[in-house]
Amino acid sequence: MVNLRIPGPTPCPDDVLEAMSGQMINHRGPEFAELIERINAGLKTLFQTEQDVLILTASGTGAMEAAVVNVVSPGDRILNVSIGSFGDRFATIAETYGADVERLAFDWGTAADPDAVAEALERDDAYRAVFITHNETSTGVTNDLEALARACRRVRPDIVIVVDAISSLGSLQCAVDAWDLDVVATGSQKGWMVPPGLAMVSVSERGWKAFDEAKSPRFYFDFGRARDMLTKGQTPWTPAVSIFYALDVALKQLVSDGIEKIVARQRRLGDLTRRGVKSLGLELFADERYASDTVTAVKVPEGVEWPALNKLMREEYQTVLAGGQGKLAGQIFRIGHLGWVSEAELEATIESLRSALAKLGSTEAARAG
Amino acid sequence: MVNLRIPGPTPCPDDVLEAMSGQMINHRGPEFAELIERINAGLKTLFQTEQDVLILTASGTGAMEAAVVNVVSPGDRILNVSIGSFGDRFATIAETYGADVERLAFDWGTAADPDAVAEALERDDAYRAVFITHNETSTGVTNDLEALARACRRVRPDIVIVVDAISSLGSLQCAVDAWDLDVVATGSQKGWMVPPGLAMVSVSERGWKAFDEAKSPRFYFDFGRARDMLTKGQTPWTPAVSIFYALDVALKQLVSDGIEKIVARQRRLGDLTRRGVKSLGLELFADERYASDTVTAVKVPEGVEWPALNKLMREEYQTVLAGGQGKLAGQIFRIGHLGWVSEAELEATIESLRSALAKLGSTEAARAG
Questions:
Q1: At a CB cut-off of 8 Å and minimum separation 6, what does B187 contact?
Q2: What DSSP designation does A166 have?
Q3: Which one, of A350, A240, A288, lies nearest residue B189 by Cα?
Q4: Comparing C-alpha atoms, which of A57, A241, A68 is closest to residue B57?
Q5: Residue of B166, B238, B321 to mutate, interface with A, max A Cβ within 10 Å
Q6: Residues with Cβ < 8 Å from B265, sequence gap 6 or more?
Q7: A151-201 pLDDT tens trace
Q8: Does the structure show a pLDDT above 70 at B368?
Q9: Is the backbone peptide bond immediately before B195 cis, with ω within 30 degrees of 0?
Q10: Does the structure show a pLDDT above 70 at B364?
Q11: pLDDT tens, A211-240?
């Protein structure tokens, strides 16, 4: 049994995987309408929103692009708050569509400072929207999204707050309506315990107003078409029906657990992972005050090559870790602990790391071992 | 057992559905690289191309949009050859991205005339690309794509030929390289016998040159990123892993059958369906010379309401037909016979129709019955 410890796709429970093998149905018929209505209700509960949640057949990056093209017009001034690779990607997508993006970047491994965001908004009153990553998968940092949103609203009550919540929603506290977030996107392969292929996005009234005004070209990702078809229990284009089956099953479990229990469990899993990593003498990459409860980034210790560690973990310990992305390649590795994961699997991951590092002659691990 | 007779999603064989419930793997690891390489090889065989086939996590409409944004710049003059709803959609997508589209429309139910297409190209030498639907799912007509492509090349040897082959590739003869087609898109939920969620696109050298010059904004659907990542056995964004598993299994069968056998089988299924429909006294919507071997469009007979027929077929005969789209709503219904379908299922469909029409008091069916 492989211990898949990447931050998505995450392993899926047996009943979710079984649902994936359901036979096809008419995506314009009553069975699909019942399915999408039930899923929409479950998503609203976990997004903590009264708004409908749109479902796109795409991965998380598709949802980020959808957020851009439905909110932004070419030339629009956008404040992009980035703390890592995915935050940077959001800016790149907005620039691709002609937005005038101010990149407010914080050191990788740290969280965004709400006061600095507020100051940036004060310096220029032309911003139409602010883009924020909730949980930065590349560095293992969770932004204080509630505080960031509050800081934005203090300066600009009507600014459109667009959130990449791909690796947070369904796992971490993310109260879409209470925190007054406008466009919030997530992906099925993260905390939802479902295979990749669906992206889910909520849109507030303010978000719909921005949609009405936005002039970027859009068709496949058009929120308006998705909203109109959702009222008929359909999607505008043929949906990935099987992944709807899986999401339906996973949502039953997630809704039954409830967001408080899920969040508390994620905190335990995050704590366990961080304590385990430190017990090996390894250093966390993220500022521990903001360390993510869904993914932990660890510095590759002195004297160890990541490719060798990765290979050994895969081949000897059937444990699949994630490497660093972009400028962090070779510098860090990451342990995913979101979705369907047990404390025992995380304990086994730490023990495998202990043994692998000792084999590779890491002094830190040997000292700690 | 439901007889799902819509033109996609089509029913999937048991082993394909079983593959859908495989556990997740690292989409950046060696297992996925082996998987995508094997699938790419199979797709090349069935596309009859030497070019790599890009795989996008999206439905067919996403592939159409991808074809547009990777080939067209705003202001580009495009000739759009339409014989139905999906042909019109292609023009709308191109217009959405700012193309200057000439809509060359043929009567619904007929095929595009190669001479008329050649004349249109002769009238204006500014066309950068021609968009053609191979098999028009909304009307049940298959264009003579080989003749259309030859007519285009005769007038404009270097024009970029972009083909919506969503409901033809893998079912009907579509020799991408031999017919010198440049950008050819299909979707997993059609003849491939796989659930929806993946779109597959081939790009010729001429297509790549157009890509290099095209200035439409693109990110999620960027062909260049997909090409670059394919050389590493990856996709740029998290792929719908489970549907890759299914496509892998289905391709084994399709490649083993071979395109000639598949095409001959589709012809038998098409003939059987058309003969059956006519035996009920019903009228085919399509000009029979160009009637599609993957989907048959049938005129709703006088005195019968499509909603009533649809409901009766669903509830009494467990047979799901497709209605008409756009201006054909209520005027026609459609019988899908692509992907995993047997002659017995089509015979049962005809018999169910005979019985349902008699119950609804259709004089045509009663006379024929």
A1: A238, B8, B59, B60, B63, B166, B167, B196, B198, B199, B200
A2: T
A3: A240
A4: A57
A5: B238
A6: B257
A7: 999 999 999 999 999 999 999 999 999 999 999 999 999 999 999 999 999
A8: no
A9: no
A10: no
A11: 999 999 999 999 999 999 999 999 999 999
Is residue A258 within 8 angstroms of chain B, CB to CB? no
Return the residue matching tokens 């310096």: A123
Residue ranges for chain A with pLDDT beneath 50: none
Chain B residues inside the 8 Å CB shell of A98: 217
Contact A62 B57 (CB under 8 A): yes
Kindly provide the residue ranges of all beta strands, DSSP E only, lying in chain A, ordered along the sequence. Answer: 3-4, 53-57, 77-82, 100-105, 127-133, 135-136, 141-142, 160-164, 183-187, 198-203, 295-299, 319-320, 322-323, 332-336
User: Which class does domain B14-256 fall in?
Assistant: alpha beta
Task: Please list the residue range(s) of chain A that carry CATH number 3.90.1150.10.
Answer: 3-8+259-368
Q: Among the residues of B216-285, which ranges form H helices?
A: 223-230, 241-257, 259-279
Asked whether B171 and B293 are in contact (CB, 8 A), the reply is yes
Which amino acid is present at B357?
L
- Hey, is the C-beta of B237 within 8 angstroms of any chain A C-beta? yes
Q: What is the phi/psi pair of residue A38, to 5°? A: -65, -40
Tell me which residues of chain B, numbers 153 to 192, contact chain A at a CB-CB cutoff of 8 Å: 187, 189
CB proximity A73 to B under 8 Å: no
What is the secondary structure of B152-185 as a DSSP string? HHHH-TT-EEEEE-TTTTTTS---TTTTT-SEEE
C-alpha A14/C-alpha A19 separation (Å) is 9
Q: Which CATH number fits domain B3-8+259-368: 3.40.50.300, 3.90.1150.10, 3.30.70.890, 3.40.220.10?
A: 3.90.1150.10
Which residues of chain B are in CATH 3.40.640.10 domains?
14-256
In 3D space, the residue among B136, B140, B182 whose CA is nearest the CA of residue B162 turns out to be B182
Asked if A23's CB is within 8 angstroms of B17's CB, the reply is yes
Tokens for A40, please give them: 């929409």
